[in-house]
Amino acid sequence: MNLNSSLFNIPLVNNVLYYDTIDSTNNKAKELAKRGSVHGSLVVAKSQTSGKGRLGRSFDSLSDDGLYFSLMLRPRVNPNHLSGITLVAALAVSKSIDKISSTKTSIKWPNDIYLGQKKLAGILTEAGSDYVVLGIGINVNTSSFNDELLHTATSLYLETTTIFQKEDLLEHILYEFSALYDQFIKSDTLSFMTEDYNRRLGCLNKEVYIIPQNRSLQSNNPSLIDVSDLSPMTCNGINSEGALICYDEQNKIHFINSGEVSLRII
Ligand code: BTN
Predict the structure, then answer these.
(1) Which of 58, 100, 110, 263 shows the greatest Cβ crowding within 10 Å of its Cβ?
(2) pLDDT in tens, 3-57
(3) pLDDT for residue 260 is more than 60
(4) Could you tell me the maximum CA-CA distance found in the chain, to the nearest angstrom?
(5) Distances in whole angstroms, Cα of residue 14 to Cα of each of 38, 42, 73, 86, 219
(6) Closest to 197 (Cα-Cα) out of 255, 237, 233
(7) What's the pLDDT band for 218 if we cut at 50, 70, 90?
(8) Residue nearest to ligand 1 atom 15, measured at CA
(9) How many angstroms from the chain centroid is the CA of residue 92?
(10) 3-state secondary structure of 224
(11) Over the stretch 148-199, which tens digit does the pLDDT of each residue have?
(12) How far apart are CA 173 and CA 146, in angstroms?
């Protein structure tokens, strides 16, 4: 992977570190943050030996077929609104992938990117007292998955039979994210992008089960989690704070905050 020098033209990118192999770009970006590194420090790796996913899971990134990077930010935003950065990133990733590969990705709220029924990309945001690390992993040129991921994951290559330049995708995402992030920081709300996000939302107007986080840990695959005691809700999109608006069977409205739950479309 040859990083383009034009990365430095992107307003948000102030420092770039590239590794052939690293444990986790998120870990490295957190280390940089704690050592006082500048806002907009980007860590990119060709492969990761301990890629991390949400809810303490691992993220398969041993092969160099994917795009793995983390951006360290020092956002000047109401700390209660920090989770919005993850949704901003999900929209940027979804839009950029569609632009570069002519696909039609969807967002699994809050922050997974899907193609059809399979996961294409994941986002892990980790916050410290004065920084946020935004980690993004995308299955780009992966030609096969192990048994565990076979039925739940896909790649751009498997969907389009085209090999993509990971550096081009990286640049697109960072440009898109820079523009959206700027609007988010200036307005301190997601209202400027809710329409765009909701248009890509996989569960929009569908029935879903909202699965509590302790139960989400039971399995990587939401369809294997016991939901027999849960009631379905209808999903109506996100609001300007990024909460998922849902209606229960009595038509009572619920605002679901990310971090607390995961989602299964019925
Ligand atoms: C998820 O699907 O649960 C989130 C996956 C996030 C993976 C990326 S790859 C780059 C960065 N470094 C990590 O260790 N994780 C994120």
Answers:
(1) 110
(2) 777 888 999 999 999 999 999 999 999 999 999 999 999 999 999 999 999 888 8
(3) no
(4) 56
(5) 7, 8, 10, 20, 38
(6) 237
(7) low
(8) 52
(9) 9
(10) helix
(11) 898 999 999 999 999 999 999 999 999 999 999 999 999 999 999 999 999 9
(12) 27
156's tokens: 């751009």
Distance 251 CA to ligand 1 centre (A): 36
Please give the sequence-ordered ranges of beta strands (E in DSSP) within the chain, or none if there are none: 15-22, 41-48, 67-73, 106-108, 112-115, 118-127, 132-138, 207-212, 233-238, 244-247, 253-256, 261-265
Pocket test for ligand 1, best of 49, 61, 114 (most atoms within 8 A of CB): 61
Rounded to whole angstroms, the Cα distance separating 91 from 22 reads 27
Task: From residue 21, give the alpha-carbon distance in Å to each of 24, 43, 44, 229.
Answer: 9, 11, 10, 44
Pocket of ligand 1 (CB under 6 A): 24-26, 48, 51-54, 57, 59, 61, 68-70, 122-124, 135-137
